[in-house]
Amino acid sequence: MRYEYNAIIKPWDNIDLTFGLVYPNIYEIGLSSYAIRFLYSYINSFDNIVCERIFLPKNIRFPASKDLQTEEILNSIENKIHPKLFDILGFSVQFENDIRNIFWILEKSGIPISYKIRMKERIENNKSYPLIIGGGPVITSNPISLGKVFDLTFIGDAEPNLESFLKSYIDYKPMKTDLSNYLQNLSKIQGIYIPSVKNRVQRAVIKNIDHSEIPNYQLRADSKTEKKAFEDSFFIEINRGCPYQCKFCISSYHNSPFRNRSVENIKKVIYNAINSQKIDTISLIGSCVSIHPKFYEICELIIKNNIRLTIPSLRIDHLTDKIIEILENAKIKTITVAPETGSDELRYNLGKKFPNSQILDTILKIKQSKISNIKLYFLIGLPNESEEDIDAMIKLIKDIENLGFNKNSIKININPLIPKLNTPYEKQIDWYIDDQLLILKKRIKKIEKELKNIASINLKIKKINDLIKNAKLQTLISLGNKDVCSLLINYYHNGANFGALRRAEKELEFSIDNYFKKIKNCYNPWVLK
What is the DSSP secondary-structure string of 76-144? Predict the structure, then answer.
């Protein structure tokens, strides 16, 4: 374990509630999550509540029943407490790929994956299990694909109702009489969905994110490598949501409305952080940080205080000469942008209203600056995508290469579109039905063949078959219902690999293709408000 800054270790004496905060992936990834840092600080701000972290161990074997590591491998970071001993286990679910890890953590801890089995064992065998809760973008988008697992889920922002939930559990805990009745009462709180109740729920929204306090003494860890990692950084969330409404974007629709944090609040956070502790790096967090009206001023303030600045992906149309200059002054070595496609028409249909000519002009300006690398994100499998659109993508990338970049300085990421429930593209699943996957595979191979021998291009495509199959699985999770949840649990018990998914389909007599066709014919397992 690396040396950590600002971990909170409380004695369990005189504590009314114990909360195990679970990130269902390895420590380095979990500590790079702003959600984990915020929740950890917020829950621990209550004197009578202790919050400790639990992460996925490395080198695990699926399912957990076949993993040879002891249960203690899952003990909490702070006081080495077994997950089963917490009152509540709260999972932050950021990515569909982490769902099998949730099952592993529960099984390894000796906790039934199904909420119905947990409820039955509580009643019939007087078993004591933590309340299993979930939140995060995957849950907000569609809690039904995990609807047989969680006792309750948070839909939308946590800030409006987390305190009232924690207090309600403290009131319930001494009695522990009727969990069903307790959950029924919780279902009346806006933003909390109870799978056993199937209550209608409206997404919780914090209207002013200045009211969401950024932790000053937030979790960080020393990086032992020369390449600085996010776990070293101090995170500042400068906005939430996205105003551009790109049709595939989960943030535009599940985190709406778009909200900027005030520059006064951001400045206060920066000054409090650098005056109270040693800060080497500040990372600006948000789906679209560059649209903040004071983005330049914020960057300038960080640079003037001799703090390293890192930023997420930026919109092409925001990279003005002035912004490129401030990023150059920040000694940023790589700028990340997402053209998504080489076709102006497809890009406009996505909701990104800038042409190839603007992309090339902007990247030339980056090339002429001191910023030496550029990372480009592209999508494949878009609605109405043709072979000509793939050729246009290849041409755009080659045109960028012709601007004169050095060896391996253009990093290309190409991923299939994952339709997200409750976005305009939720029904755009043609590429995952029947033999369409073969066309996707051929197109990725074509891109790889055309670009692999170009010195300046570093094309990140691993195993194409696995890339395509994993995209189909993520799409299934994104659009799933309770039957899909059963399929996923079966898939997990069979080894959580692609062969296991085929076995699960056969054993449950479930067809993923037929389910996707059902989605295409306007079936909707979950409607987000």
Answer: -TTT---GGGSSEEEEE---GGGHHHHHHHHHHTT--SSHHHHHHHHHHH-----EEEEESHHHHH-GG
CB burial of residue 466 (10 Å; 0-12, 13-18, 19+): exposed
Q: Which long-range contacts (CB under 8 A, 24 or more apart) does 71-79 make?
A: 71/108, 71/109, 71/110, 73/108, 74/105, 74/108, 74/109, 76/20, 76/52, 77/1, 77/7, 77/52, 77/53, 78/7, 78/8, 78/9, 78/10, 78/52, 78/53, 79/9, 79/12, 79/52
Instruction: Measure the CA–CA gap between 309 and 65, rounded to whole angstroms.
Output: 44
Quote the radius of gyration of the chain (alpha carbons, Å). Answer: 24
At how many degrees (to 10) do helices 179-186 and 162-172 cross? 160
What burial class does residue 30 get, using C-beta atoms within 10 Å of its C-beta: 0-12 exposed, 13-18 middle, 19+ buried? buried
Query: What does the pLDDT read at residue 483?
Result: 98
Instruction: Please report the pLDDT score of residue 226 as a whole number.
Output: 46
Token pair listed for 473: 């699985």
State whether the Cα torsion 452-458-463-468 is positive or negative: negative
Q: How far is CA 77 from CA 51, 74, 102, in A?
A: 10, 9, 18
Q: What is the pLDDT of residue 175?
A: 76
The model's pLDDT over 398-423, given as tens digits with 9 standing for 90+, comes to 999 999 999 999 999 999 999 999 99
**What is the fold of 206-312?**
Transcription Regulator spoIIAA (3.30.750)
Q: Are 512 and 520 in contact (CB under 8 A)?
A: no
Q: What are phi and psi of 10, to 5 degrees?
A: -110, 145
Q: What digits encode the pLDDT tens for the residues 185-227? A: 999 999 999 999 999 999 999 999 999 999 999 999 986 654 5
Q: Which residues are within 8 A (CB) of 440 and not within 5 positions of it... i.e. 6 or more apart?
A: 380, 381, 416, 431, 468
| Residue 192: strand pairing partners | 154
What pLDDT is attached to residue 529?
66
The pLDDT of residue 460 is: 80
Name 53's bridge partners.
21
The answer to whether the CB of 409 falls within 8 A of the CB of 374 is: yes
Supply the pTM of this predicted model: 0.96
Cβ–Cβ under 8 Å, residues 367 and 403: yes
In the chain, domain spans = 4-156+161-193, 206-312, 332-464
Distance CA 56, CA 440 (A): 32
Q: Do domains 206-312 and 332-464 have the same CATH topology?
A: yes
Distance separating alpha carbons of residues 88 and 82, to the nearest angstrom: 12
Alpha carbons 266 and 89: distance in angstroms, whole number: 32
The CA angle 257-263-264, to the nearest 5 degrees, is 120
Using a CB cutoff of 8 Å and minimum separation of 24, what contacts does 180-183 make?
Answer: 180/119, 183/151, 183/152
**Domain covering 332-464 in this structure, CATH number:** 3.30.750.200
Q: Which residues of the chain have pLDDT under 50?
A: 226
